[in-house]
Amino acid sequence: MxxxxxxxxxxxxxxxxxxxxxxxxxALCRERGWTEFTVLIPVVGVANEVIAEADYPDxxxxxxxxxxxxxxxxxxxxxxxxxxxxxxxxxxxxxxxxIPDDLA
Length: 104
Known about the structure:
By secondary structure, this protein is an alpha+beta fold. It has one domain: Alpha-Beta Plaits (2-Layer Sandwich). 38% of the residues lie in helices and 24% in strands. The protein contains three helices and four strands. The protein has a four-stranded antiparallel beta sheet with strand order 2-3-1-4. Helix 1 packs antiparallel against helix 3. The two termini are 18 Å apart.
């Protein structure tokens, strides 16, 4: 299993707009049959940080989703809109893989 994680700090006063945009992205993902994101906030830590996670069964599925998302004009326009609400330089992504049960 692969977990894709996006982490960003939201500008002060922009949290509502950021979450509304996240909901629009999830609605588009639902409409397109793509994996939706779970949006989380830390209980403690960096102020106004948002974490969005999505799970994929394998790397090929993650890559297929990425290609579909990046070539979809509506998806990319929504994605670019996050810049208006994100602290510049704070956004990062991670791709995590579960450890195999049969590790040698």
